[in-house]
Amino acid sequence: MCARNSIYTNPKPCKHLADYKLRHGFNTYDSIRYCLKTTPNGRTRVAKHTTKIPRCSFCDRYQGRLYFCLMCSSLWCPTHILLHTQSEKGHEVAIDMDRSELYCCLCCDQVYDPDFDKVVVCNQVKDLPGGSKSKTNRFEASGERSSKRKRLDSGIGLDLKKSKLLVSMRDRRAKSCYPLGLRGLNNLGSTCFMNSVLQALLHAPPLRNYFLNDRHNSVQCRKRSGEKLCLLCDIDAISSAMFSGDRTPYTPAHFLYSWWQHASNLASYEEQDAHEFFMSVLDGIHEKESKIRNSGKDDGDCQCIAHRAFSGLLRSDVTCISCGFTSTTYDPCVDISLNMDTSNLSSSNANKHIKPDEKTSASTLSGCLNLFTRAERLGSDQKLHCQNCQELRDSSKQLSIRRLPLVLCLHIKRVEHSLVRKISRKINQYMQFPFSLDMTPYLSSSIVRSKFGNRIFAFEYDNFNSSAAYEIFAVIAHSGMLESGHYVTYLRLKNQWYKCDDAWISEVDEGIVRASQCYMLFYVQKLLYNKANEDSSFVRISPRRDPLESTAGCSQCNKLMQARPAKDNSSNNFLG
Amino acid sequence: MELLRERLIDCGWKDEMKALCRAHVKKKGRNNVTVDDLVHLITPKGRASVPDSVKAELLQRIRTFLMSAAL
Q1: How far away is chain B from the Cα of A171, in angstroms, using its nearest Cα?
Q2: A118-155 burial, b if ≥16 CB within 10 A, otherwise e?
Q3: Which of A177, A358, A442, A533 has CB 3.0 to 4.6 Å from A554, enough for a Cys bridge?
Q4: Whether B35 and A108 lie within 8 Å, measured CB to CB
Q5: Which segments in chain A show pLDDT lower than 70?
Q6: What residue ranges define each of the domains in chain A, with the CATH number in brackets?
Q7: Is A289 exposed, middle or buried (0-12, 13-18, 19+ CB in 10 A)?
Q8: How high is the pLDDT of residue A166?
Q9: First to last CA, chain A
């Protein structure tokens, strides 16, 4: 599906078809409609004679392709249809019976007419199970599930089953073997900042699962709060659209509108900062949730999905230089903003003597994290009151991570403010980052311990934290200048990287990702990452397995499929 | 019929045929090819390249059906 344009040009009709349409308009198309029959897999045939075997009017042949003349409903095989056209004037257009496709006898070629296709598709949609004449919904028993389906109906306009059938048919033809959930987002006017963050959010395992498991029910939400605007409802809608299987780019217009209502100071068509947007969205989600639950819980204990996924706890130790007394405070955070560890940029370092063997080349994530957790001497103008000394003293401050979140969002501060020249500029320096990240050295347990040197005995919270191992799943990269740039998101799904550039999704090599100018890095706890990648049952709730889905895939996947029996229920089948 | 289609897609036959068509169209130019051309081009190759496993499976099914229908 790589770089397929969403707009394709319709082939121009041949002059015979154009003439035909001028003369007869839609009359014959309409009458054909009653002869169209749709098979379960979505193929539409012309089946006028249900008892007789269709045969060529000239040679009686019934094998191979047969054409159905639109004017007189006679049947012809490809060899003899020309005879018919020559003998009867005006009978130039026919339909391929098996495929319901138009054929021009004079051009001897297939022709296309959007109006005809419209008739056929309407018919297909009507005929497929669960159409307008649907009998009782089989899944009524599972109450909630079917209501989610119905809600999707109103959103998409087609029954989910039908759209899945139609889509999986289309997917097969498009050789799309991209994982479920990958879908481009249309740019609504410098909204790449929004699209990039949405891509990352929707693929964060906790959020992805939250929405796929229907944890936010829009119907109930509307009933409860009575408000029409809910960011979570909008994100839920986007999530449904992303995971629907439809690969055409989606337009998150409603979400944009809702967000504008929430962050009215940022509501414009100017480019915004992705990180600012990210914070704003999390805030919006939290606000709505806390309004509903009426709880004044602080962010650390909040159970809204934004906090459950992103909230961590930072520890700040302020130490008096003179006496060593330390005061500790804990602050919740939803992300960590890191300064870049460049030693040869800012003017404050101009005085420092740079040793010749010091590495000043590349910036690394571990370097940034080290910088973040380094004990920083506060300036003499920032003297703090020491409780022990009972007076203002020079102090040093050190940050560490007390509790890691499920999803770790690292924001790389690429803006440099020069107070002297009163300008801001973007730091374009490349920063190296790992795909697997171990956060142990930055935990409070490690940092606090290291203050005392190399000690062996146990400290206050010295539990071996196995949940400090993280795997990267999304990278938001920025290119361009401060005022005008472009954001793209790189997503890692099942160890394959995909580039999400607004509406265009493509597979990319990991080298591209490593070389990109990262702005926001999203890591998720390794256990969750592994689970998300192997557990492929997070697809739309579909108790009935469509026989199509086991065969959807491109030729590479086909080789894999061949090794297994057709209706395999193993979890390796990512549509299973 | 549907089963046959399914099997042919599975084994990559359809993709091979598609590739053949594409190559032909590239050679001739998009506007110089008709469906009939392609059909005449593909038919012999296609018939020959159906995998034996697919043939065997379908023949088996036909046999079974005929036997059950005959009873």
Answers
A1: 13
A2: ebbeebbbebbebbeeeeeeebeeeeebbbbbebbeee
A3: A177
A4: yes
A5: 1-11, 38-43, 49-50, 124-177, 225-228, 292-300, 343-361, 451-466, 535-576
A6: 15-125 (3.30.40.10), 181-292+302-315+407-537 (3.90.70.10)
A7: buried
A8: 45
A9: 21
Q: Which of residues 337-396 of A touch B (CB under 8 A)?
A: none
CATH value at residue B2: 1.10.246.140
C-alpha distances (whole Å) from A161 to each of A20, A72, A128, A348 are 36, 36, 9, 63
The whole-angstrom distance between B67's CA and the closest CA on chain A is 22
With DSSP H G I counted as helix, E B as strand and the rest as coil, what are the percentages for chain B, rounded to 5?
85, 0, 15
Count of domains in chain B?
A: 1
User: What pLDDT is stored for residue A231 in this prediction?
Assistant: 87
Domain that holds residue B48: 1-68
pLDDT given at position B30: 80
**pLDDT per residue as tens digits for the range A339-374:** 987 754 333 344 444 444 344 457 889 889 988 988
Whole-number Å distance between alpha carbons of B35 and A114: 19
* Separation CA A488–CA A477 (nearest Å): 5
B34–A561: do the CB atoms touch at under 8 Å? Answer: no
Measured distance CA(B45)–CA(B32) in Å, rounded: 21
pLDDT of A176 reads 52
Of the candidates B6, B11, B36, the beta carbon closest to that of A78 is on: B36
pTM over 0.80: no
List active site positions of A: 192, 486
Give the mutation candidate from B10, B15, B54 for the A interface (greatest A CB count, under 10 A).
Answer: B10
Residues of B in Cβ contact (< 8 Å) with A558: 9-12, 15
> Chain B contact for A555, CB < 8 A?
yes
